[in-house]
Every structure is written in C-alpha cells, then in structure tokens.
Amino acid sequence: MSTHSEPMTDRATRRDRSAGHEEDDSLLPAVVAALSAAGERLVGRFSTEPRLGSREDVLAALRESDAVSLDAIREPLSRARPGAGWVEDELACGPLPEGEWWVTDTVEGNINHVHGMTDWCVTATLVRDNEPVLTVVHLPLSGETYTARKGAGATLGTRRLRVSAKTALDAAYVGTGQARPGEDEETYRRIGQSVTAMLGSALVLRVSVPATLLLVQVAAGRMDVFWQYSQIRSGLVAGALLVAEAGGAVTDTRGDRWSLTSEDFLAAAPRLHAGAVAVLSTVR
C-alpha cells in the first residue's frame, strides 16, 4: 500500500494553480541543485569492488544509499514547493490525491549502484493532479542532467531533446525490464512473451533496469521503444514526461492514453508507436 505525507496546505488554502504553472520554470534550478547534492553523496559511496555477500547485505546497502540521498533532497524540495505533498513509498502504484506531489527516486537503479555498476541516477518529478509537470533526472557519474516541463520541451543541459525519426520497427532498438523484484507470475509471463514477440520484430532488444535510464535514451533518440508491465509510479513519471516533451508517444501497451491508473506502459518514437502496439497486442 502506498504511503503519503499530507500536503502542508489544505484545499482551501492551496496555492492558485495558475501561479503554480508560472513558477515551474523558476523551480528547476532548485531541483537540479538538490539532486546534484544527492549525487555527490552517492558518488562518495560508490565502489566497483565486490562487497556484498548475502541478500541481507544487498538490502542493507539499498536502504543506506536511499537514506543518504533522501537526506540531501527532501528538505530543499519541500522548501522550494512548501504546498506539495511527498510520496514516501518509491514502489507505490496508482493515482495520487488531488494537488501537487513530489515523486522521487532517491537512487533510481539502486541495485546497480550497490553492485558497482554505472546505470543509476537520481530523479524528482512534480506531479500536479496526477499529471507530471516538471522533472529532473541527474546522472552523477557522467554529470548529465535531463529536465522537462510540461508544454516547454525536454533538454539535456542546454540541448533540446528529440525522439527518433525511424519509421520501421525492423530498424528499432527497443527495451523493457522488470519494475521490481517479486512481481507476480502473470507479470513475468507477459514480460517473457513480449520479449519473444519483439525479438521477432525489432532490430535489437535490451532488457535492463532502471526504467528511467531506458526512457532517457528514448527521449534522446538513441533508443526507439520502451514498454513495461507494471505501474511503479516513481520509475515511470520522469521518463514519461521526458519522452512526451521530446515528441514521443506515451500510452499503455494497447495504445490508449497512459495515466497513473494504467496497468502497463509504452513509450515510442511516433512513427514506430503503431507497430509496437501491434506486436505487444499479441501478448495476452
């Protein structure tokens, strides 16, 4: 079950929504600064030397890294948007209450971080009335920072992002992955069937975690399609906004509009979207 911290202001006193839209642009520097500070702490903990000997070691390392990053980002983001609530559970699914909420992943790809692999990042997304409106994805090891605001485009630093211009799925680099350990058997079955189906249709398929770093590649036009059979909110909202603002299609796997109530997720270059839906529609 998801756990939320209630917004500090009630509905009667919540800031005017139009003012919130106007303030989104000025909010970005504070979010970037907070995630950069968290990234510095995480880099200080990062090691490529093997050091984990058991499941208990892994879980303890995951908790410690999350705590270090959360300590760096929560207060600055709460101060920057004092009326916004805070989602406590990074593995939560489904819609949020009305209003503004910070949805963060303090170490997106934490499993890679604690195992000495480089595919991890820090994310923060402002969700307003269940729509992501601002996001920052910071990759501490490379120093890259991806940002997007609803209606204002997506960027890597100062460079505007554009999704792939490919027109045929047989030229596509596609990807998927599991949202978390311990998914149900039905989800695993669908993942397996979709991988088999896409292997027969796309050029190359990549299965990896975390979702956000694959979605960043779609937004940047380096990959072409990503799908996932789950609805872990913190793993999708940042990438969904980046891809949409870079000109991509963001739906469920049947091609219907994606929202926080959707059961699954698909992001694709626009001219590959119909083909991806057709392939994934074979998964029952």
Description:
The strands form two sheets. An eight-stranded mixed β-sheet has the order 1-2-3-4-5-6-7-8. A five-stranded mixed β-sheet has the order 10-9-11-13-12, sandwiched between helices. Strand 9 (173-176), helix 4 and strand 10 (204-207) form a beta-alpha-beta unit. The chain has helices at residues 17-45, 55-80, 110-114, 185-199, 211-219, 233-245, 273-280; strands at 4-5, 85-87, 100-108, 121-128, 131-139, 144-149, 153-156, 159-160, 173-176, 204-207, 225-228, 249-251, 265-268. 43% of the residues are buried. It is α+β, with helices and mostly antiparallel strands.
Helix/strand class: alpha+beta
Overall pLDDT: 92
The counted number of beta strands is 13
How is the largest sheet built, in terms of strand order?
A: 1-2-3-4-5-6-7-8
Helices, strands, pairings?
Layout: E1 4-5, H1 17-45, H2 55-80, E2 85-87, E3 100-108, H3 110-114, E4 121-128, E5 131-139, E6 144-149, E7 153-156, E8 159-160, E9 173-176, H4 185-199, E10 204-207, H5 211-219, E11 225-228, H6 233-245, E12 249-251, E13 265-268, H7 273-280
Parallel strand pairs: 2-3, 9-10, 9-11
Antiparallel strand pairs: 1-2, 3-4, 4-5, 5-6, 6-7, 7-8, 11-13, 12-13
Helix pairs in contact: 1-2, 5-6
